[in-house]
Amino acid sequence: MTKEKFDGLWKNGFERKIDEIKSCCSDKILFDENRKEFIFEKYSNIRDFIKERYMKNKDGLLDRHKVAAIMMKAILIVEPFQLSKKDNGEILDTEEIPILAWFANEVFAIYCANVIVSSFLINEEDTKMKDVYKKGLVIPDCRNEDSYLLQLAKELYYNKVEGHFDVFAFANILFLLEQYTIAINSSQTSDLSNQNSCNDV
User: pTM for this structure?
Assistant: First the structure.
């Protein structure tokens, strides 16, 4: 991903989620605008490392799922969202903090990955693919108390705590979500009204 494409996605996609998270969390969370450039710098470093270490063609392009997964990792490392603190420097009491605030960076990372994957497909000449992806990734329903998205956000959080994020594993998750989206949206008999879109994170 070039810096120009990153800036375009940030302006036309990422910023919307930033505003949404800040609105939902009120004064419980802060977003550091200065970390935007650090995110792209970290993305570039991870991308170059992946190419050098694992790719046969080190000068070739990475597929959209790896690009999106690398961006997720960059966001989790840079952590542009921070919990608000009291005047004494301590974070707010746990009961005062909404769950979205706890996982703001993780939710933001998932949303950005969705925007990236969707942008690659929407830019293709295949009209059918554009229609399939116009609403972003379709997220499976979950029988557990937590939604699939919340479970994925928690998984990202625990990976961050453990100091490990497998780019290839999360690229595979994004690929499977993409295939699920294609299967659901391509089926004329499916009732999409009950499906969740990643745009609703």
Answer: 0.84
Q: What's the number of CA atoms in the CB half-sphere (13 Å) around residue 195? A: 20
Q: What is the largest CA-CA distance in the chain?
A: 58
What is the rounded end-to-end Cα distance, in angstroms, of the chain? 24
| Cβ-Cβ contacts under 8 Å for 132 (sequence gap 6 or more) | 121, 181, 182, 185, 186
The domain segmentation of the chain, as residue ranges, is 3-200
Dihedral Cα 92, 93, 97, 103, nearest 10 deg: 80
Interval 159-183: pLDDT, tens: 888 888 899 999 999 999 988 888 8
